[in-house]
Predict the structure.
Amino acid sequence: MTYCIGMIVDKGIVMMSDTRTNSGVDNISVFRKMFSWRVPGERMIAVMTAGNLATTQAVVSLLEERTKEPEDRETTLLNGSTMFNVASEIGKLLRATIQERQLANGERGKGKFTASMIVAGQIAGMQPRLFMIYPEGNFIEASWDTPFFQIGETKYGRPILIRGYDRDMSFEDAVKLVMVSFDSTLKANLSVGLPLDLLVIGRDEFAPTHEHRVEQDDPYFSQISSGWGDKLKSAFHSLPDYSLDRR
């Protein structure tokens, strides 16, 4: 399983993904699920993946190869005129890759090669944009009514994002909120695990504002994890007591 969050705030975009993949409790591996490309001063694009690992790796490999093609060939990431065009092309590539693998495996392949993606970034002269791409290749775009997307194991960390989000929050607070969401997911589901990859993309910077890998012994994440647990217990005990004498 996987957990990835993409969140848009006034200052830009915050993204975080876990790195755990598993085929049973005795076969756990670490694979990167966040990838980024940039043209200094012109664009910054990032992708996070969830689903069948072979499928997502194939799509990312194809995107990488297309950025290295000769100049006379249109490339998905570096020559797309808008983020909408970039998301459209990635969606087509994802759908084609899934269909190819399902057809190659016949009946055994049905439903086994599904995947989804979060695509985010900014092209010069335009606004930062955030998209969620479905296995069918179609997608939706974030707005101030729906300012974040999750893929993978979403249910445990979603309530925290809904209660804590504010569009004018600082990057520091946005990262803190995302980390609390991840901590709750890690506590509830063993198929999501450290290390975590963090990427902050500032508006009009066209380069990472901040990149960090949260390892097992990361001191800040440890403080967030223990502090959040303590605050929850404190908040719980501060609520009015229920009376068994109520009628």
Observations:
- Helices lie at 53-66, 83-104, 158-164, 171-188, 219-238.
- The CA atoms of residues 31 and 80 lie 28 Å apart.
- The mean pLDDT is 93.
- The radius of gyration is 20 Å.
